[in-house]
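User: Hey, quick favor. My workstation is busy. Could you predict this chain's structure for me?
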Amino acid sequence: MTVDGRALRGDATRELVLDAALEMFAEQGYRATSVRDIAARCGMTHPGLLYHFPSKAALLMAALQRRDDVDCVDGEVRQLGFNQLEARAVLRHLVTSAKNNASKRGLVELFANLSVEATAPDHPAHDYFVERYAALKATVARAFTDLESEGALRQGVVTHIAAAQVVAAMDGLQIQWLLDPEGVDMEAALGALVNGMLVEPL
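Assistant: No problem, here it is.
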């Protein structure tokens, strides 16, 4: 096999492992899932998996990065980066993400479970989630600040509070949807919240 062929096979193996890890972390949580469990689901040996990911923490961080990559479905987001979008595009992307998440139950479960587990300071994903929420709220607050300067926010909307409300609504809607997928429309609920803060709807 050529070097390129080995690299291609290695990439496919990594994707197989990450997909299995995402599923199992979502089903059982990070702490209850072992590397041996993930290796068994992949049909691999424990040492074989460790060749690609030297520790469970490394596997978790790679799985979270894969989740972020999968979430970047919008071409504009891939090109510019979420934090570089103009104000209304930021809010539109959040509402679109709520819609897309309805087809990604495993990923939504993973995020919901891990974000709670990672509140513990000793959790390997603690810093990831702290930084992720800080960056997300900063970007949404910046979007609302830009809209405020354009006169596009309704009177009484406070930009940093609105950002926290939107992020909280996203997480809360995901929990409600996991419990009642037929009864909760994440896109409609988040869109209504955002549009209620704007002079003109998205």
